[in-house]
Amino acid sequence: MQETLFDDQYSNTGQSAPAYGSLEELYQASRNCTRCRLSETRTNYVFGEGNPEARIVVIGEAPGAEEDAQGRPFVGRSGKLLDKILEAIGFSRHDVFICNIVKCRPPQNRNPQADEIEHCLTWLYAQLDLIRPDILLLLGRVAANTILDNNSSMGSMRGRILKWKGYDVVVTYHPAALLRNPNWKYNCWEDVKMLRTHYDTICAENHQ
Ligand code: URA
Q1: pTM for the complete prediction?
Q2: CB neighbour list of residue 162: distance below 8 Å, 6 or more residues apart
Q3: Nearest-atom index, ligand 1, CA of 139
């Protein structure tokens, strides 16, 4: 059986990680999730959306008010900026898959708490196991520190290609942070240009 990203979490339980046949099946299995308190205050579960065969998965932090209202990721102000960032490197949101570390909005947009993240990560890992992209684009420190399991600063993670469990990883600023601090846009532009170049290199290698 193919090893899944979340086998580790099942290693002490005597159970094997559940396998899902498709993103639709995973969505149906997860949409009524009540594993954590965020399910009590959400309007909509925000699974994520985009190309199920995407080579790039974009991972944000958590749904905000607009995302909670619509059940779709990155559709508010941050989402409009994310669309522009993707466009600037020749992608639309239909080329990538966009999701978040946690699938339900934390009240008052507070940071997701450790136990909420832990419960929700199995859904994200299952998404990655199904999509099997080449590259993860992690937006902001919550996404990057969670996936890379560190407490590193943005400055020490951005600007280079990192590796995590066989995926190539690019870390950059969260669009909400760029809206608050436009001075960081230049660095973000450098990061996503690097992502595009890396993506083109992978595509060229795959066609050789
Ligand atoms: N911020 C995020 O991290 N994710 C969203 O979906 C929207 C805003």
Answers
A1: 0.93
A2: 148, 168, 169, 170, 171
A3: 3
